[in-house]
């Protein structure tokens, strides 16, 4: 027998075993009192934590041969649907978030609530750093909250606000101390927490909502998946650049034509106001005529062509346009992903009710 996988179908938790033939067969299942919303499995202890729509978390211990699952305890963690559950073996903590806008952590041995934090919007994703006891909480308002956890207290460290849509995926690299966040705004942001004074690098390579992120530490490659089926492999072992802040101006910063809200200059110059655009490379406010060019800028994260001003377009070389990511089509709308680092296997589950297992060795190496 090989490794195990778990699947949620309505109110049933089912364990699948991989046989020597390479096929997966159902081993054991357990019916739940409420529809399952999320789960976390610790392979070392074989502890399975399952969050449910009714706000409860049920914990099970799987037998060594994965042919039996023994209920351990069930406790009410939230007043609404559990959105994320995470078991931390080193602390014996169960971290969870819910649609009640609460982040809580419980003792996994007693089930006792140790502490909590009220978020501004309901939480969609969660990561935890064992060494520093920092929790990274992404929510539907588009912000990422960083909390410092103690045994029974937590303190707010900071919040990151860079997405215009809800945060849909988080991935933490404890080695480089970098946090990746994906969003429904189609973008990914790399937050460098490990000493570069809060550097934020944008990655633009998806046409739909980012559904999952995972990081291959040994090759420094980021894997991202989106709801349109796109799988993007990002090379993070390059010197990337921050995108500039968009500058404010009442007129084009090249030809000085007034923008349409600048009534005084329009009246004085007897000119019709123009629509404002921004160059993605320098951030200057430009009219459409002065920013009519398009170009990729991979080192700034723009793998697709974006608007640039005429001056910046002339400065971008063919070497600057060399892609830093590869694109692949999964052929289904991805809902969830899991990456097995030791085997370079990527598991994707889709809205088409199909689970696919990918050998990523040819592209993650």
Key attributes of the depicted protein:
365 residues, mainly beta, Methylamine Dehydrogenase, Chain H, Herpes Virus-1, 2 domains, 4-stranded antiparallel beta sheet, 2 helices, 30 strands, 4% helix, disordered N terminus
What does it look like?
The chain is mainly beta. It folds into two domains: about 80-245 and about 325-360, Methylamine Dehydrogenase, Chain H; about 245-320, Herpes Virus-1 (2-Layer Sandwich), CATH 3.30.40.10. Helix content is about 5%, strand content about 50%. The strands form nine sheets. A four-stranded antiparallel beta sheet has the order 4-5-6-7, with no helix packed on it. It has a four-stranded antiparallel beta sheet with strand order 8-9-10-11, with no helix packed on it. Strands 12-13-14-15 form a four-stranded antiparallel beta sheet, with no helix packed on it. The protein is elongated. The two termini are about 25 Å apart. The relative contact order is 0.07.
Provide a brief overview of the structure.
The protein is mainly beta and 365 residues long.
Q: What's the arrangement of secondary structure elements?
A:
Elements (H helix, E strand, L loop, with lengths): L3 E6 L2 E7 L5 E8 L4 E7 L4 E6 L3 E7 L6 E8 L5 E7 L4 E6 L3 E6 L5 E6 L4 E7 L4 E6 L3 E7 L4 E8 L5 E7 L4 E6 L3 E6 L6 E6 L5 E7 L4 E6 L3 E6 L27 H7 L7 E2 L6 E2 L6 E5 L4 E7 L1 H6 L9 E5 L4 E7 L4 E6 L4 E5 L6
Antiparallel strand pairs: 1-2, 2-3, 4-5, 5-6, 6-7, 8-9, 9-10, 10-11, 12-13, 13-14, 14-15, 16-17, 17-18, 18-19, 20-21, 21-22, 22-27, 23-24, 25-26, 28-29, 29-30
């Amino acid at each position: 027998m090989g490794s195990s996988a778990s699947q949620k179908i309505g109110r049933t938790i089912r364990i699948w075993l991989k046989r020597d033939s390479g096929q997966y067969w159902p081993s054991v299942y357990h019916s739940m009192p409420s529809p399952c919303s999320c789960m976390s499995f610790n392979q070392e202890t074989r502890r399975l934590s399952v969050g449910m729509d009714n706000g409860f978390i049920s914990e099970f211990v799987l037998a060594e041969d994965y042919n039996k699952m023994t209920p351990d305890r069930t406790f009410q963690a939230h007043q609404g649907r559990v959105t994320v559950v995470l078991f931390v073996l080193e602390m014996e903590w169960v971290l969870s978030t819910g649609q009640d806008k609460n982040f809580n952590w419980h003792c996994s041995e007693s089930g006792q609530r140790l502490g909590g934090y009220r978020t501004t919007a309901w939480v969609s994703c969660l990561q935890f750093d064992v060494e520093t006891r920092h929790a990274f909480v992404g929510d539907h308002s588009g912000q990422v909250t960083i909390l410092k956890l103690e045994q029974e207290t937590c303190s707010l460290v900071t919040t990151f606000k860079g997405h215009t849509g809800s945060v849909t995926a988080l991935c933490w690299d404890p080695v480089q101390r970098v946090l990746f966040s994906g969003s429904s705004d189609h973008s990914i942001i790399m937050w460098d927490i490990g000493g570069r004074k809060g550097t934020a690098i944008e990655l633009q390579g998806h046409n739909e909502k980012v559904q999952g992120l995972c990081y291959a530490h040994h090759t420094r490659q980021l894997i991202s998946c989106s709801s349109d089926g796109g799988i993007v492999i990002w090379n993070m072992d390059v010197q990337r650049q921050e995108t500039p802040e968009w500058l404010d101006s009442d007129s084009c910063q090249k030809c000085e034509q007034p923008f349409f809200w600048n009534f005084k200059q329009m009246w004085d110059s007897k000119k019709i106001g123009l629509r404002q655009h921004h160059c993605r490379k320098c951030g200057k406010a430009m009219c459409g005529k002065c920013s009519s060019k398009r170009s990729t800028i991979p080192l700034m994260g723009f793998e697709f062509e974006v608007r640039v001003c005429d001056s910046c377009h002339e400065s971008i070389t063919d070497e600057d346009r060399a892609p830093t990511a590869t694109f692949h089509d999964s052929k289904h709308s991805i809902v969830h992903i899991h990456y097995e680092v030791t085997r370079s296997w990527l598991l994707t589950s889709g809205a088409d009710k199909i689970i696919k297992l990918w050998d990523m060795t040819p592209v993650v190496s």
